[in-house]
Every structure is written in C-alpha cells, then in structure tokens.
Amino acid sequence: MAETANDIVSRRMRGLDRAFEILEFLRVKRQPMRPNEIATEIGAPRSSIYELVNLLLGHGMLDYQGGDGRVFLGRRLYFLGTAYAEQFDLMRECGRMLGVLAEETRETAQMCLLEGNKYTVAMMREGIRPFRISSNVGELVAIPWTASGRLLVAHLSDREILDFIPPEDFVLPNGRRLEPADFIAQVRQATEDGYFTFNSEVENFTHCFAVPIHQADGACIATLCLVTPREDGLRNRTAYLDSLLKAAHEISEKLGFRSSKGRFFGS
C-alpha cells in the first residue's frame, strides 16, 4: 500500500522527536557515546538511531568525540545557543546581574530554572573569595533538594505539586525522607516571604539563598541564588537577601511584573 501524505508527516514527526531525544539524552549524560549505546539507553531501534545520528552529524548538531565512533553535542549547537542568549532578555539580564551579585557579595551567584520536573542551574558566576563554591551548570537535581524548588513550583496547587514531583525525589541525599506535606508548607511560606533560605541538602557545609524572578503574570519563571559557606551565609543573611531581592526585583520589573509589596528584606 502506498504511503499517504499523513503517513509521511507522521513518520517525519516521530523522527524529529527521536532526534531531539538523542540531543537531550547526550546533554544529560554529558559524555560521548556510541550510537548503539544511545539506542539501548533510550530504548530505540538501532537502525533508526544510526540513521538519525548520521543526519545530525551532517548538520553539525553532533560531532565525533572520544574515538570508537562516539558522538557528542556538536559545535553548531554552541552557535545556536549564543544566538538565543543574544535575543533572550532574561538570560542576558540575569548574566549581567549575576556578575553584580558575585562582585558585591563575593559569593557564588546562580540563576536557576525548572527543566521538566527537575531543578537545574542555568547560569553561574563564582565569587571572588579564596574558598569557592560551584555547581555543574545544566545538571538535573530533585526539586525538594533545593532552595529554589520551593519558589519554582509555587504556582501549582498542592495536588499538582504532588503529581509533578516524582515520589522518590522526596528522599534527600542523606537518606531522610522529606514529607511532601512539609515541603508544600515550605512552598507556601516561601511564597508569602518572597524568598527561601536553608542549609543545603546537597552540600552539608553551605547555606543557600533563593529569590523569585516573576514574569508579568506573577509566575516565578526563574530564581536568583547565592550559595555560601554556612557560617558566612548565616552571618550576612540580611545583606545577602537584600542584594538578591533588589536584583530579582529589577529583572522582574523589566519583564513587566509589578509587586504590591514594594519593599526589600532589609528595609
């Protein structure tokens, strides 16, 4: 039977979905892999993966790296990313503001987002203190492990939060389980306060600060954060929060958000 036009469109759409799946898989894995390994990991037919890998190689979306036929994200993606950064005001403004925060506080400043149902650091500027704290940009982390997580899901209802976050993500790095009801209570309190701070669940010697960046409709689309040595963070809590809140307020205003509170932590 001859392939219809709808069949052709459907087949091409499935191929496009699979190509994006390959790119996303390699982004998360962060290492070159052979096409047959990719096929096994994502549960796809080897023949289609080889075909798509060759196509992506031809367009510069993948490059050979590491020998033995391994492939990884291609240099053309870098140029696409720089074009995106030049046009997307949020990224540009956050990049500028992170530099200001890192210089002003001497601490590591981050801009964080949701990536699917996980948290990730999208941009980072290390502080200038001799002892530096850094994170892997783009690494996916369970939402309940992070200060930003309390702000990034604040627009969801209690039921939506429970449906959104995988149950296993409430198990913290130390093996203790954070009760979902306690997490939700922290989300609501963070919304009321306009920030969230805590001793990190990932690094036991750090203290984390997170404040929301709001778009015009009031939804939190990103956070500005400071990751500090625990004692320094607690000692300078008021000053650090004031710096973060002023920075986030400035970016939020440029995105069209108007706050009814109109005050900062230290005022």
TrEMBL record:
| Domain of life of the native organism | Bacteria
- Segments passing through the bilayer: none
- Tell me the ranges covered by the IclR-ED domain, including all copies: 76-257
Q: Which GO terms describe its biological process?
A: negative regulation of DNA-templated transcription
Which Pfam families does this entry report, sorted A to Z? HTH_IclR, IclR_C
The record ties this protein, via InterPro entries, to:
GAF-like_dom_sf, HTH_MetabolicPath_Reg, Tscrpt_reg_IclR_C, Tscrpt_reg_IclR_N, WH-like_DNA-bd_sf, WH_DNA-bd_sf
- HTH iclR-type domain ranges (all copies): 13-75
Q: Supply the alphabetized keyword list.
A: DNA-binding, Transcription, Transcription regulation
* PROSITE patterns given in the database record: HTH_ICLR, ICLR_ED
Q: Which GO terms describe its molecular function?
A: DNA binding; DNA-binding transcription factor activity
Entry-linked PANTHER family:
HELIX-TURN-HELIX TRANSCRIPTIONAL REGULATOR, ICLR FAMILY, HTH-TYPE TRANSCRIPTIONAL REGULATOR RV1719
- Put simply, this protein is called Transcriptional regulator, IclR family
